[in-house]
Write a structure and sequence with these properties.
There is one protein chain. The protein is an alpha/beta fold. It contains 5 helices and 7 strands; from the N terminus they run αβββαβαβαββα. β3, α2 and β4 form a beta-alpha-beta unit. The termini are far apart.
């Protein structure tokens, strides 16, 4: 029994170490190619409220949440809000089809490394969808907020 408890505690500690993004702190830079293979830097959105949305075309829960993210983006985009979609798709064509199908108009970049890409690793992403809300200074306000809570947070930051 002690061995099981010890193993669980160690696993939880390791997971906490991997969660490198924390509320109140700035996030690491993201520089990845967009749909046109041009590099886009997260830092280029400084001064805006940004939702970093980690997802993939093959992820059912991600695809199910896309309409609400699109709706939120459309509601606040003219007020200084941006969504920075970070796909972990390995197949560019599948990613592009999902963007078109889900009517995504906000910034999209792709880390072709998938789960083992530099960005998911640096951010401690171990499940998708995962979202990180940043204030205008680039500091984390919330992780995985959704629905009315996310809408209220975005509205209050603008």
């Amino acid at each position: 029994m002690k061995r099981i408890i010890f193993t669980v505690v160690i696993a939880m500690a390791c997971a906490a170490v991997n969660a490198q993004v924390k509320v109140g702190e700035p996030v690491p830079e993201i520089s990845l190619p967009n749909v046109n293979d041009s590099t886009v830097n997260l830092s280029s959105f400084k001064g805006k409220v940004v939702l970093i949305d980690f997802w993939a075309s093959w992820c059912g829960p991600c695809r199910a949440s896309n309409p609400s993210v699109v709706k939120l983006y459309n509601k606040y985009k003219d007020k200084g809000f941006e969504v920075f979609g970070v796909s972990i798709d390995n197949k560019k064509n599948d990613w592009l089809k999902a963007i078109k199908h889900d009517k995504i108009k906000y910034t999209q970049v792709n880390d072709k490394g998938g789960w083992y890409g530099k960005v998911p690793e640096r951010y401690g992403i171990n499940m998708i969808p995962t979202s990180i809300l940043l204030d205008k200074e680039g500091k984390v306000v919330a992780i995985d907020a959704e629905g009315k809570q996310l809408d209220k947070l975005v509205g209050s930051l603008l």
